[in-house]
UniProtKB/TrEMBL annotation:
It comes from Lynx canadensis (Canada lynx). PROSITE patterns: LONGIN (PS50859). The chain crosses the membrane at residues 184-204, 216-244, 250-268. It is found in: Endoplasmic reticulum membrane. May be involved in vesicle transport between the ER and the Golgi complex. It is a multi-pass membrane protein. InterPro entries: Longin-like_dom_sf, Longin_dom, SEC22a-c_C, Sec22a/c. GO terms for cellular component: endoplasmic reticulum membrane. GO terms for biological process: endoplasmic reticulum to Golgi vesicle-mediated transport; protein transport. This is Vesicle-trafficking protein SEC22c.
Amino acid sequence: MSMILFACVVRVRDGLPLSASTDFYHTQDFLECRRRLKTLALRLTQYPGRGSAEGRDFSIHFSSLGDVACMAICSRQCPAAMAFCFLETVWWEFTASYDTTCIGLASRPYAFLEFDSIIQKVKWHFNCVSSAQMESSLEKIQEELDFQPPVVLTVEDTDIANGIMNGHTQIHLEPAPNFRMEPVTALGVLSLILNIMCAALNLIRGIHLAEHSLQCYLYLFYSPARTVKVVLMLLFICLGNMYLHGLRNLWQILFHIGVASLSSYQILTRQLQEKQSDYGV
């Protein structure tokens, strides 16, 4: 049985497959390994230059440098040094054939289909040539692996990654607080209308227009520290009307303060709607 079963070249930044060897294996285990390889290709930016994912019958090896990564599915009997030597050879062949610009502009999978034949030749060479004939190359790679071991992943790592990318991982979410207010009462509607009238009467006075608009907002929508905001708003409205004493008569001032007081009362008495026990079922 061949040591190296499948190989591909992918773009590191997005895992786009650029070229691949012909696939002659169709067993369920091998197809599952192919699926994991595709998932791993999407996450190469998270790992160092060399790594391996060990499975029951097959192993995935990858080697990335710059914009390009080479990946392979090998039998468990394949030595790591041979797998990485193969990947390095494919990488050199590919980067010698295509420049960075062409690689970066590739927009469809397997854009460099003509390189497939070169992958096949290199794969055949490593599968058919004896280890003795490649001894010097394998020794060099083995020294590099001893000095800087590749990251070792498990099958579970790739399964978790695939689950996260496809949205199958269970995520525990805390229930969001329910901020629905009680229904608006008739008196509340009246206070809104009166606030709109006061705001219209104060179009030329921006601060008073803002005050009454804010009172409408506080009544309609829930706001943290609601009581403090209401008290301060009522105080500002009272002080503002006292400041305008010379421009308004007593009835006008009482009307504005009365509307503000009614609105403040409505805001403070309108409570949050309780969440039903069977809500969301």
